[in-house]
Specification:
This protein is an alpha+beta fold and 593 residues long. The protein has helices at 56-65, 77-87, 181-216, 224-231, 234-251, 263-269, 275-293, 297-310, 317-340, 349-385, 492-515, 521-535, 547-553, 565-572, 583-586, and strands at 7-10, 31-34, 92-96, 115-120, 126-131, 134-139, 143-145, 174-175, 179-180, 401-411, 416-425, 428-434, 442-449, 453-458, 461-463, 468-470, 473-478, 484-488. Residues 156-167 have a biased composition (Basic and acidic residues).
């Protein structure tokens, strides 16, 4: 678009271009040939155009109705190929990238890693499939076609768990010129990894050059903040993936692909892949911003014109932006399949095994960071509901509520006891007082820096420091100032929960240090701003639900070990009746169940 190129134009239909047309779009849809004069930055001499009036909508329709089919070779060829195979009587299998949970009896539910028989792929977005005796519709974007379609289904596990299987039968079969079936299967997986990485790089390049580059030229339509919201850190991902694919190419054995040793590449880049965390966390915001913009027609035509100019396949921008989220989910599946067809004697075996675990950890880390980022909004809302707040915001030092509950705090010098609500976050313990009449309202009283504290279990009986008899007690002792805080719980089990919570708090702090987890200043400020807006939107402070009901909901039931996982989940995450006011549950309720 910005290269110095000139065109002799043979006009088909002439259009003036409004301000929402990407730079260089006036080159697309025209027949040209390169000539000697130079026009920089993709701009055409407007005198070369006639004065025929046409709108962007006309231009867009011309493109759609013309014979041009921009996109990667084949366009929707994969979908056509699947249907041809199915119509010929072949069996086509796909692996689930994510869980598909549904209550609709017309849809097929499955878990990540399940293998689905694809029975109909005529619809681009929804396919019909079967798992054992169950059939139904499922979203095509939730699955990845299995590489080795010719492998007998009985030799393939219904769930890809990453690893080793009994290969006594398949490993001895021969394929072609002295190559075992297992080696050929490994060749297929290696080829898929290499080819999908090349396609992915092309895809990222198209987004960066086809959309972002054009958007930045239109400061009248997009602010830099909007572009950051829509595209996140996809340019960083593009730079990372370019280096990664070069490393893969070096390890790729073109003559004998099954001998390729690619496991070390994944191990080398496992830390850099953590940049996907920021992208995945931002993706819902990108979808909301795109949804807002595409309600305005000029943005719809702008984005479509960008796609046509870059000659990208017929998918909307939000579909393109989903690809990095899908990609990071595919790596564990690809590595699990690669490990399945890698003999233990292969030089790549240990690296592939370690790479599989590493990429699973990356996926887990991304999920955990997403959960933590969702929590900071709830923490900000909680703080905005506290009366008489003093000092810095909770989010300055903390991003996780570990535990909360009522305790009796005993203070020097007269061993004065006070009933207080305590909220244990990473790095700090916040103390609040309940309103005497309106028990749902909390007032800020103090906080304790947990980084300076050690926890001391106190036996029932007379305490020497405070010279009083205590029960279900523990102390927080400051190593620097020798200051001591004494707390008493109502029941022994409540005390044990608090002691366990303090252990979890220190473990969380250590884990965050090891993984480098942090919340950016922008994210903190945005969370507090959102909470402030909600707080001032006229919602009443009072709640009608008795505080006793709230306390009852805070009990931690011991779940029977014999319950199936789905039942355990339903008990752990009960469905609550919708409430008119968010304060009903969020004012005091711990955010982590």
């Amino acid at each position: 678009i910005t290269s110095a190129v000139a065109f002799d134009i043979l006009p088909l239909k002439l259009h003036p271009f409004s301000q929402s047309t990407p730079t260089g779009l006036d080159c697309v849809g025209w027949k040209w040939r390169i000539s000697s004069p130079v026009i920089t930055d993709g701009a055409l001499d407007k005198t070369a155009l006639t004065d025929d009036v046409g709108s962007e909508e006309d231009l867009y329709e011309d493109f759609r109705s013309s014979n041009h089919r921009y996109g990667h070779p084949g366009g929707g060829g994969e979908q056509l190929a699947i249907n041809e195979l199915i119509s010929d009587g072949s069996v086509v299998y796909a692996e689930a990238l994510w869980d598909h949970v549904t209550m609709d009896d017309q849809e097929l539910g499955f878990k990540a890693g399940d293998v689905i028989e694809v029975m109909d792929a005529t619809n681009k977005e929804w396919w019909w499939g079967r798992i054992l005796d169950s059939e139904g519709w499922f979203p095509a974007s939730f699955v990845r076609l299995r590489v080795n379609q010719d492998e007998p289904m009985e030799d393939y596990p219904l769930k890809v768990e990453g690893g080793k299987e009994d290969d006594s039968s398949s490993g001895t079969r021969r394929f072609g010129m002295g190559q075992t079936t297992k080696d050929q299967m490994r060749t297929n997986v290696i080829n898929e990894i290499i080819s999908t990485e090349r396609d992915y790089i092309k895809h990222l390049k198209d987004i960066c050059e086809g959309y972002i580059k054009q958007c930045r030229k239109r400061a009248d339509m997009f602010t830099e903040e909007q572009l950051k919201t829509i595209f996140g850190n996809i340019e960083d991902i593009y730079r990372c993936q370019k280096k990664f694919v070069k490393a893969l190419e070096k390890k790729f054995n073109k003559d004998h692909p099954h001998l390729s040793e690619v496991g070390s590449c994944f191990l080398e880049y496992q830390t850099e892949f953590q940049i996907y965390s920021e992208y995945c966390n931002n993706h819902p915001n990108a979808c909301m911003e795109l949804s807002r913009l595409t309600k305005v027609s000029k943005y719809v035509y702008f984005f479509e014109a960008c796609r046509l100019l870059q000659k990208m396949i017929d998918i909307s921008l939000d579909g393109f932006l989903l690809t990095p989220v899908q990609k990071i989910c595919k790596y564990p599946l690809q590595l699990a399949e690669l490990l399945k067809y890698t003999n233990p004697q292969h030089r790549d075996f240990k690296d592939v095994e370690a790479a599989l675990n590493a990429m699973k950890n990356v996926a887990r880390l991304i999920n955990e960071r997403k959960r933590r980022l969702e929590n900071i909004d709830k923490i900000a809302q909680w703080q905005s509901s506290i009366e008489d707040w003093e000092g810095e915001d909770v989010l300055v030092r903390s991003s996780e509520l570990i535990y909360s509950g009522e305790l009796t705090k005993i203070s020097h010098p007269q061993a004065k006891s006070q009933q207080r609500m305590f909220f244990l976050f990473d790095h700090q313990l916040v103390c609040c007082k309940k309103d005497l009449l309106r028990r749902d309202i909390l007032y800020y009283k103090s906080r304790i820096n947990m980084d300076d504290m050690e926890i001391l279990d106190v036996e029932d009986g007379k305490d020497k420091d405070f010279n009083i008899s205590v029960k279900n007690a523990f102390k927080l002792h400051c190593r620097d100032t020798e200051e001591v805080h004494l707390f008493c719980a109502k029941k022994p089990e409540q005390k044990q929960r608090w002691l366990k919570a303090f252990e979890n708090e220190r473990r969380q702090v250590q884990l965050d240090q090891e993984t480098g987890f942090s919340i950016t200043e922008v994210q903190k400020k945005q969370a507090m701003l959102n909470a402030s807006k909600q707080h001032h939107s006229g919602k009443p402070k009072a709640v009608t639900r008795p505080y006793y009901d709230f306390l009852m909901r805070q009990k931690h039931p011991t779940l029977p070990t014999t319950l199936p996982q789905q039942q355990v989940f339903m008990l752990a995450e009960p469905k609550r009746k919708p409430s008119n006011f968010w304060q009903n549950i969020s004012r005091l309720t711990p955010f982590r169940k």
